[in-house]
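User: Hi! Is it possible to get a structure for several chains at once, not just one? Here's what I have:
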Amino acid sequence: MVAVTYLEGINQGLRECLSEDADVVLLGEDIGHFGGAFKVTAGLLDQFGPRRVMDTPIAESAIVGWAVGAAMRGLRPVAEIQFADFLACGHHQVVNNAAMTYYRTGTPVPLTLRLPCGSGPGGGPFHCQNPEATYCHVPGLKVVAPATAADAKGLLKASVYDDNPVLFFENKYLYRRIKDNGPLPAHSARLGEAAVRRTGDDLTFIAYGASLHDALEAAEKLAEEDGATVEVLDLRTLKPLDTDAILEAVAKTGRVLVAHEAWPTCSVGAEVAALIADQGFELLDAPIRRVAALDVPAPFAPGLFEAYYPGVPRLLQAARELLEY
Amino acid sequence: MPGLSWAFAATGPGDQQMPSPRPHPDGPALPRVLADFRLVPQAASSRVAAALTDPSTDVTLSPDDAIRVFHLMCLTQTLEERLVTLYRQGRFPGGCYSGTGAEAIGVVSGYLLRHEDIICPMIRDMGARLAKGSPIETILRGYLGLSTGPMRGRDGNIHQADPENNILGMISHLGAMIAVTAGAASAERYRGGDAIGLTFIGDGGSSTGDFHEALNLAAVWKIPLVLVIEDNQYAYSTPVEQQYACARLADRAKGYGIPGATVDGTDAVAVHGALHEAVAHARRGDGPALVECKTLRFRGHGEHDDNRYMPAELLAEWQKKEPVQRFQSLLLGCGLLTNTDADAIRDDAEEQVQAALSRLAREPKPRPEDVDAGGGAFCRGADN
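Assistant: Yes, the chains can be modeled jointly so their relative placement is included. Here is the combined structure:
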């Protein structure tokens, strides 16, 4: 059994999509001969050639716009935006063209945007953003955030084969740190389905992306140090949310902590909390708590970043307050 | 260095010769009075050919094509005038934007394309819709917000698409559709064949970053794209002096490594010559081409705008070159049409618009529950 990293999972997913479907094409800055800034697309140009794997000029708006046009004519373009932060430069093509074309005109837009996001100190304000909530707000976009290597592959393939524009937030911190036992299955995930990663009775963590691993670590510590058992739900798809899975996870413990690496205001955590308040108020035994990044740009220096990042210590503190409530 | 070795060039044998544009089966019919129209006497044909030849490119518009183009220009003008009336009567939601002064540009652009080619009309390009084959009823359904139109009331007026005729629906964010049209044309090339894409931008839209990004990408990838700049001298109320500082917008083509030409956009023959060459360039797989057509927007930005900011002398000067009248005078002058023929063509345009409107009178408007019918903003494909 060979361990496959999160990054290799995405590479395998892309490779399989390219092999399975002649309509799949890849485009992005430095993705061809260089294999991508993070080497996610390494080897794909050699295997599939320049008609399928296309290096682009630095032009996020044109990359997304081109992909919208190609998708409207039946291709399944997969565009890498080198850093999710840079999708701001292609923002209006995402919200005005990709998102709205199907509703307006009835023509599907099956494109996938791969968005390397998140990460640690040194990245600074412009290389570790997590802008997923911005796009969850817009009708017509699906938003996906895998946390495991198997999901990195499975959800990538599900995104490529979905007939809607999908924003695929791949977390850079997980690229080489997270592994699953291979070989990874060819089809293992569907969009819109959350997954229970750990079962428990005292408290529910709802998380995604890198924060899922912080949540799992915190759950382990709570079991060891507090004797508390924690249910951990991995959202996997942020839009559409798996409402049933969220409410089931809430019903199981009555105490909920939502965790993510993104900023707190109008975030996915805010949406999940609102959803629970709307539809699961009577399931609750305690207020809904959220643990997110601080409401400042991601700082550069390590000491500042640790204070900014919603890591295990903050999760534990919030969890213990909830358990005592 | 293993740079880009593949581009969206032609995949078949080079198409050096332009085929005659094909009339579209669903498009506006040739006026009945002209169905068996006897073209000019042989003796006059050299005069006709001279009048219909663009001296810059030596491209000649055939007499048949000239009559069809004139008919489409009349239809464009008539339909837009009728829309202004309907707008003033409060007969449709939203604003009303027309393309007065741009009739030749839109019609010739649409006319030079084949059915499989992709076009994205912008605000002033009603003529492109008609010439590409969009039926008058389809266009009117979009304006009236009827559930029978391709937009089903979810979008309308100048934003409407007509997928059956390979017409993309513009968004309001200027410059955005250049990359989209390029992507659509690339997809067609990817599958083989030699379809091209054509879209428009105004003098104002040429200032956007998207103009640059998309044109540069199209040039680097040799995407078969024709970009028509309609320089109508005003972006809403902003005159060109405050929009750009170069002598001609087509000069920017050099910066992208693509051909560019500037023509008088009120002269159908000149527009035809330049666009014929640009379309042939793209069709051959030589990459994008830029054609700048200069005209004046004779009305406000929309009907809500009385364009009082336009100097009267400027309007008067350009009114002398009003494109439909100008082309009619040319066709009369060279003997291709008589006054009676021209009147018949204009009458036919009126009749076609009126007939289309009458046919739509009983068509339904969308119901409130249609607002998120069928998955709403999401497409529910087989696997979704």
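Residues 263 and 293 of chain B are 5 Å apart (CA to CA). Strands of chain B lie at 53-54, 59-60, 118-120, 197-202, 225-231, 234-235, 238-239, 260-264, 289-294.

User: Great, thank you!
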